[in-house]
């Protein structure tokens, strides 16, 4: 104990309420209808959206809304020990929670009888890849022109060395006591993903959610900037002046 | 398109023997032992090398293992589907694997830890990110560039058969640089580096891989169409010339990594 946090400074030099360095980019793949790329710490994740498109086989289509499909996949070279290319049970579960984190933001009834495919590829993994993936996937959906109520942004909080911290890295995730990924629609204040593994008191749980939401707020600003950079070529400054 | 090709021109303005711009970036994945991202026009692939201790094949107890595997990710094109690799992805892996293996680029005999029991296994995995034709060459350059920049731990084998990793990293024992050159025959015209539009109408495809001295080390003809004797000889000559040009591009990308580290 006490190895991961010393005097309020974490192993990678961050404060307890600090995010890892991040970078977001929109429109990175030519073939996709929408795409985005995120780096968060060592995470490098690329996301593509295809659709709305015709759904095959047709009997899977729904008459009043679209079907959302999501695949979270890790490249074999993305981890410390090579990961076999076939999807693992972990990847299948994460695909489901990501889909369910994004779906509340989408106006699904605008696209009856169609499918929207979201593909997340983790090129390099670090702690919190599902959260980083959600943040990028939401940008890719926006880039594809899908109607949405709000963006979705995600960030984890957790307990390390008895302290609640924001945005766990790989080692903090593995050696820490608890990890809690949270996704939110920041303007509507609706939480769309919440997972927890590890023991937290009620007080710590509340602290964790507050921390995660504060991280989401910063990432949401980065999401907006990435979209503005993509769609207002003349630059960020003009847009900010206009505001 | 065929009229244009007869005049020696192509839809995107290239001449018949022009490649699209090639961009190679090495060491893009820090968690891999070696990696490279290649952009060939709009085709985008990323290769990562992972090195593990493995068991040699019974028939080659004194050689390390080399496995090249490529996946066309569903995010790479509207036509790619999730699931196990299809025929095209398997052909892609195997053609690239053959080029690297037959060139003897990696000296597998230097990768033996305990003969017959433990050897290094080199896994080269390629993720295709965006499909716009000529995946074979893009994948091949990514694999070769990744292998050239691969670092592996130095190890000590104790008399009891334990393998102890030392802290310093050494380069993979690589020597040659195999370079594949892929041609498409469209009607009577032979073009290099076909893009998606050209691949959609090509009659035949041929990939020839050369090593540094210009010798051929691997080849694969694809699709239902055939090629004449002259066309094959033309391809062999051109593969040597183009291969040399591209080898220089790969060398530059690899050496720029070395300089950054120094």
Considering residues with a beta carbon less than 8 A from a beta carbon on another chain, report the largest interface and each chain's count: A-B, 30 and 31 residues
CATH topology call of chain A: Ribosomal Protein S5, domain 2
The order of strands across the largest sheet of chain A is 3-4-5-7-6
Tally of DSSP β-strands of chain B: 12
Please identify the structural class of chain B as seen in this structure: alpha+beta
Query: What is the CA-CA span between the terminal residues of chain A?
Result: 48 Å
Beta content of chain A: 25-35%
| Shape category of chain A | globular
> In CATH terms, what is the architecture of chain A?
2-Layer Sandwich
How does the overall form of chain B come out from the CA principal axes? Answer: elongated
Low-confidence stretches of chain A: none
**Overall mean pLDDT score of chain A?**
92
Q: Rounded to an integer, what's the Rg of chain B over CA atoms?
A: 19 Å
Can you put this structure into words, describing what you see?
- The complex is a heterodimer of chains A (243) and B (262).
- Chain A contains 5 helices and 12 strands.
- Chain A is α+β, with helices and mostly antiparallel strands and 243 residues long.
- In chain A, α1 (89-102) crosses α2 (129-143) and α2 runs parallel beside α4 (202-231).
- The longest helix of chain A is centred in the last third of the chain and has 30 residues, at 202-231.
- By secondary structure, chain B is an alpha+beta fold.
- Helix content of chain B is 28%, strand content 34%.
- Chain B is built from 5 helices and 12 strands.
- Chain B has helices at residues 2-6, 87-102, 135-148, 196-201, 229-261; strands at residues 22-26, 34-40, 43-54, 65-72, 112-114, 118-130, 151-157, 163-171, 179-186, 189-192, 204-210, 216-222.
- Chain B is elongated and about 70 Å long.
- Chain B starts with a helix and ends with a helix.
- At the A-B interface, β5 and β7 of A face β3 and β6 of B.
């Amino acid at each position: 104990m006490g190895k991961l946090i010393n005097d309020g400074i974490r192993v990678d030099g961050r404060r307890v309420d600090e995010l890892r360095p991040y970078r977001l980019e929109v429109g990175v793949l030519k073939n996709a209808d929408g795409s985005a790329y995120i780096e968060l710490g060592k995470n490098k994740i690329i996301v593509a959206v295809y659709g709305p498109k015709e759904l095959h086989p047709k009997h899977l289509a729904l008459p009043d809304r679209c079907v959302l499909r999501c695949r979270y996949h890790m490249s074999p070279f993305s981890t410390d020990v090579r990961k076999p290319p076939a999807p693992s049970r972990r990847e299948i579960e994460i695909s489901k929670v990501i889909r369910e984190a994004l779906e509340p933001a989408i106006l699904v009834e605008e696209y009856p009888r169609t499918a929207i495919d979201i593909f997340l590829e983790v090129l390099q993994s670090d702690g919190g890849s599902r959260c980083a993936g959600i943040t990028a996937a939401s940008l890719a959906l926006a880039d594809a022109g899908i109607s949405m109520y709000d963006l979705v942004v995600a960030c984890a909080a957790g307990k390390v060395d008895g302290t609640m911290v924001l945005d766990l890295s790989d080692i903090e995730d593995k050696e820490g006591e608890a990890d809690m990924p949270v996704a939110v629609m920041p303007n509507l204040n609706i939480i769309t993903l919440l997972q927890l593994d590890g023991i937290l008191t009620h007080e710590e749980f509340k602290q964790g959610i507050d921390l995660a939401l504060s991280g989401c707020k910063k990432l949401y600003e980065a999401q907006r900037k990435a979209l503005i950079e993509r769609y207002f070529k003349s630059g960020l400054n003009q847009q900010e002046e206009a505001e | 398109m065929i009229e244009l090709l007869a005049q020696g021109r192509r839809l995107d303005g290239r001449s018949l023997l022009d490649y699209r711009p090639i961009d190679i970036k090495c060491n893009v994945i820090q968690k891999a032992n070696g990696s490279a991202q290649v952009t060939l026009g709009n085709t985008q692939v990323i290769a990562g090398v992972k090195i593990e201790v493995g068991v040699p094949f019974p028939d080659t107890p004194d050689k390390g293992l080399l496995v090249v595997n490529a996946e066309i990710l569903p995010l790479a094109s509207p036509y790619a589907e999730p699931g196990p690799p299809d025929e095209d992805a398997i052909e892609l892996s195997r053609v690239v694997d053959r080029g690297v293996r037959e060139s003897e680029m990696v000296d597998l005999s230097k990768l033996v830890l305990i003969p017959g029991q433990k050897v290094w296994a080199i896994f080269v995995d390629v993720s295709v990110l965006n499909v716009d034709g000529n995946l074979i060459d893009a994948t091949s350059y990514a694999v070769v560039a990744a292998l050239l920049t691969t670092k592996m731990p130095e190890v000590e084998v104790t008399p009891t058969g334990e393998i102890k990793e030392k802290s310093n990293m050494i380069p993979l024992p690589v020597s040659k640089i195999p370079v594949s050159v892929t041609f498409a025959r469209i009607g009577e015209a032979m073009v290099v580096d076909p893009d998606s539009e050209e691949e959609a109408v090509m009659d035949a495809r041929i990939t020839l891989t050369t090593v540094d001295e210009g010798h051929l080390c691997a080849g694969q003809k694809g699709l239902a169409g055939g090629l004449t004797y002259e066309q094959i000889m033309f391809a062999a000559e051109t593969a040597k010339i183009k291969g040399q040009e591209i080898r220089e591009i790969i060398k530059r990308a690899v050496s720029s990594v070395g300089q950054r580290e120094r």
